[in-house]
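Hey, sorry to bother you again with one of my protein questions. A protein chain has come my way and I'm curious about its shape. It would help a lot if you went through both lines with me. I owe you a coffee for this, so here goes:
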Amino acid sequence: THTRTHTHQTHTHTHHSVVNLGISRTMVSMFVGGLIRRASTRLAVCVTQPFVAPPPTHRILHASKCTMTPPLPASPVDLCHCPGAHLLRRNVVRCLSRLPHQSLTQVLALPAAPARPDGAHKGTFGTVMIIGGTETMIGAPAISATAALRSGVGLCKVMVDKSILPFVLVAQPSATGGMLGASDKETLASLAKADPDAKSVLAVGPGFGQDPARQSLVLALLASGRRMVLDADGLNWLAASKVRLKHDTRASPSAKGLILTPHPGEFRRLAEPLSITENPVVAEERPVAAAKLALAHNAVVVLKGDRTVVTDGSRFYINTSGNPALSTAGSGDVLTGLLASLLAQGMPAFEAAVLGVHVHGRAADEWAAQHGRAGLLAMELAHQLPKALNPLRA
């Protein structure tokens, strides 16, 4: 720390700031945010350089209390209003130094949503294929299909068991249907027939269930190299297999087009066979935890939860939209369909994930502004997506 003097509206104030540490404002705020509980006055932090995790020997030793009346200029961070300030417990720099290359760049700007040019047709905006569903979870693939269509994909096909296909299509009649086969071979043949060019984006896992026969299908789909969002039971079957997907490192995670969307429980199951020990619910450990999983599987990881983290192993984004209204059954199925739709419309995986988690939360924020922060249904969230997404289009 060092002492600095600010003159603002004829007032002079002396405070202590942490400066030039090469870490992002969000991460610094998360570090010193833990002191807020014990501080009788506000704290200020100035960060002037882009994020590069310092060597393990570099440490933030302390941040002194300071008064901030009147408010300081916009450049310092007012930690009393920083995301994640109430969650921090330990030194974030110590955690970030565990990454293999000790570097992780924070992304702050949102990418633009896909454009809607004049003269376009449904083929312009890609195809999503939802693979999932069981007799007890008919709604999940229908919700994902609704989200994909509401966020702009041109076509959406749902592949489920023959016994539930009519019911899924009643729930979302704008989708078309296909049937899962009695074996992996039959399902892959059906998929190849429905998508001979392998250009569709797969959304695998919504309502897939715990049938052990599903595991080999999930692994076969992952081995196909198709662009994919893997969620829910698809993630559980990947975790159970203990397979590491980093078999093809020629493409970057974003170019490869694989997005994994675990909540903390699913993350723990995925992390255990990879010896990833960071806690997925501790604020300052979440970016590193997600980055390690992304590096292990050469994928983009969306670690859900308060302040959802998106990372491809070298970049990370911390989402700030959303509210407790999202704590409802099916909201994850909405995100799966939304992410697959953005991939199908041509966005790289990292950018699609960043935009998708923001829009997902923004839709919930707009709903909550009208109805409050409880009672949101997943289908209502899906129907809210056009209003949340359209202002962000290029």
